[in-house]
Structure prediction request, 167 residues.
Amino acid sequence: MRIAVCPGSFDPVTNGHLDIINRASQIFDKVIVLVSYNPNKQSACFSVKERIEMINAVIGDFDNVVTDCNEGLLADYLERTNACAIVKGLRAVTDFEYEFQMALANRQLCPTAETVFLTTRPQNMYLSSSMVKEIGSLGGDISGFVPPQICSAIISRLYPEKGIIKI
Ligand code: PNS
Prediction:
């Protein structure tokens, strides 16, 4: 069985992530969406449990996709689960250097797993969890950026005032 891991912060999962997960699920036998620890992102908006719940709410259509979380090294997780690939989405050239560094380091740490880059769809090129959080926290419309099943939960966290009638 060819197992791929889609690692990320997913704080929160976006339409861009979901597209990559969907496409990975058509290439591999099993895809693990792994909520991982990124030391460069210290203060998450959603807890790991909430992020996993949101991912679970949007992967219902894919029967070979599961979720998990990991606080340690991705390479160790890949070995533990016998995964043969790390799947990452690539947006603009600006992603490339960072992703390339991680791919090389992961290859050194876990030579049995390949990093596979899937290019984003053009409509998701500018999309990131950070952008969703910024727009949502300022009361903007995020419905075009995140799956409908989790949109209101995200808005409630980012902009609790929304929906309250001000007099
Ligand atoms: O969505 P992100 O925050 O860009 O994803 C980055 C992530 C979480 C995949 C990366 O930070 C990661 O792999 N973290 C796990 C710890 C690890 O293995 N670090 C070394 C990477 S070479």
Q: What stands out?
A: Residues 7-9, 36-38, 41, 73-74, 102, 105-106 surround 4'-phosphopantetheine (CB under 6 Å). The mean pLDDT is 94. The chain has one domain: 3-125.
